[in-house]
Amino acid sequence: MPRKDLKISLPRFPTPPIELILTCELIIANFYPAQWETLKKQRGWLKLIQIAQRLCYAVYFQRVQNSLAAQQSLLNALWAQEWGKFF
Protein backbone atom coordinates (compact mmCIF):
# COMPACT_ATOMS: atom_id res chain seq x y z
CA MET A 1 0.00 0.00 0.00
CA PRO A 2 1.54 3.36 -1.01
CA ARG A 3 2.29 5.86 1.71
CA LYS A 4 0.17 8.95 1.32
CA ASP A 5 1.65 10.82 4.26
CA LEU A 6 4.98 11.54 2.53
CA LYS A 7 4.66 15.13 1.30
CA ILE A 8 8.16 15.58 -0.16
CA SER A 9 8.75 14.61 -3.77
CA LEU A 10 12.04 13.17 -4.97
CA PRO A 11 14.88 15.71 -4.87
CA ARG A 12 16.31 17.02 -8.11
CA PHE A 13 19.91 18.17 -8.47
CA PRO A 14 21.06 20.40 -11.35
CA THR A 15 23.95 18.27 -12.59
CA PRO A 16 25.16 17.90 -16.16
CA PRO A 17 23.70 14.93 -18.02
CA ILE A 18 25.88 11.91 -18.70
CA GLU A 19 25.50 8.99 -21.06
CA LEU A 20 27.32 5.67 -21.59
CA ILE A 21 30.52 6.93 -23.27
CA LEU A 22 30.98 9.78 -20.79
CA THR A 23 30.25 7.39 -17.92
CA CYS A 24 32.94 5.04 -19.21
CA GLU A 25 35.42 7.90 -19.39
CA LEU A 26 34.57 8.94 -15.84
CA ILE A 27 35.08 5.39 -14.53
CA ILE A 28 38.31 4.85 -16.46
CA ALA A 29 39.75 8.21 -15.40
CA ASN A 30 38.96 7.61 -11.73
CA PHE A 31 39.76 3.93 -11.34
CA TYR A 32 42.29 3.24 -14.12
CA PRO A 33 44.37 6.43 -14.41
CA ALA A 34 47.31 4.83 -16.24
CA GLN A 35 45.02 3.43 -18.94
CA TRP A 36 43.20 6.75 -19.16
CA GLU A 37 46.48 8.55 -19.85
CA THR A 38 46.83 6.38 -22.95
CA LEU A 39 43.17 6.33 -23.95
CA LYS A 40 42.61 10.09 -23.77
CA LYS A 41 45.23 10.62 -26.49
CA GLN A 42 43.66 8.22 -29.00
CA ARG A 43 41.86 9.88 -31.92
CA GLY A 44 39.01 7.38 -32.07
CA TRP A 45 38.27 7.77 -28.39
CA LEU A 46 38.44 11.56 -28.59
CA LYS A 47 35.98 11.50 -31.50
CA LEU A 48 33.52 9.44 -29.42
CA ILE A 49 33.94 11.81 -26.47
CA GLN A 50 33.34 14.86 -28.66
CA ILE A 51 30.13 13.38 -30.07
CA ALA A 52 28.89 12.40 -26.61
CA GLN A 53 29.71 15.83 -25.19
CA ARG A 54 27.89 17.59 -28.01
CA LEU A 55 24.83 15.41 -27.49
CA CYS A 56 24.78 15.82 -23.71
CA TYR A 57 26.28 19.18 -22.94
CA ALA A 58 25.38 21.63 -25.72
CA VAL A 59 21.76 22.12 -24.65
CA TYR A 60 22.60 21.84 -20.95
CA PHE A 61 25.22 24.60 -20.99
CA GLN A 62 23.09 26.77 -23.27
CA ARG A 63 20.32 26.61 -20.66
CA VAL A 64 22.84 27.45 -17.93
CA GLN A 65 24.09 30.45 -19.93
CA ASN A 66 20.53 31.61 -20.69
CA SER A 67 19.59 31.44 -17.02
CA LEU A 68 22.60 33.57 -16.08
CA ALA A 69 21.82 36.15 -18.76
CA ALA A 70 18.14 36.29 -17.78
CA GLN A 71 18.88 36.44 -14.05
CA GLN A 72 16.76 33.33 -13.68
CA SER A 73 17.12 30.55 -11.16
CA LEU A 74 19.41 27.87 -12.56
CA LEU A 75 17.36 25.19 -10.84
CA ASN A 76 14.23 26.46 -12.57
CA ALA A 77 15.95 26.55 -15.96
CA LEU A 78 17.11 22.96 -15.52
CA TRP A 79 13.89 21.64 -14.00
CA ALA A 80 12.64 18.53 -15.80
CA GLN A 81 9.30 20.11 -16.75
CA GLU A 82 11.12 22.94 -18.49
CA TRP A 83 13.16 20.51 -20.63
CA GLY A 84 9.99 19.06 -22.12
CA LYS A 85 9.25 22.43 -23.71
CA PHE A 86 12.60 22.35 -25.52
CA PHE A 87 12.15 18.98 -27.23
What does this structure look like?
With 87 residues, the chain is an all-alpha fold. The protein has one domain (20-86). It is 67% helix and 0% strand. The protein contains five helices and no strands. It has helices at 20-31, 33-39, 43-69, 74-78, 80-86. Helix 1 packs across helix 2 (33-39). The two termini are 35 Å apart.
What layout of secondary structure does this protein have?
Layout: H1 20-31, H2 33-39, H3 43-69, H4 74-78, H5 80-86
Helix pairs in contact: 1-2
Top keywords for this entry?
67% helix; single chain; mainly alpha; 87 residues; elongated
Spans with pLDDT under 50 lasting ≥5 residues? Answer: none
Beta strands, count? 0
- What level of helicity do the residues show? 55-70%
Largest beta-sheet characterization: none
What overall geometry do the principal axes of the alpha carbons give? elongated
How many separate domains make up the residues? 1
Estimated share of beta-strand residues: under 5%
Counting DSSP H or I runs of 4 or more residues, the number of helices is 5
Distance between the termini: 35 Å
What is the succession of H and E elements? HHHHH
Structural class: mainly alpha
| Backbone CA Rg | 18 Å
Task: Give the integer mean of the pLDDT values.
Answer: 83
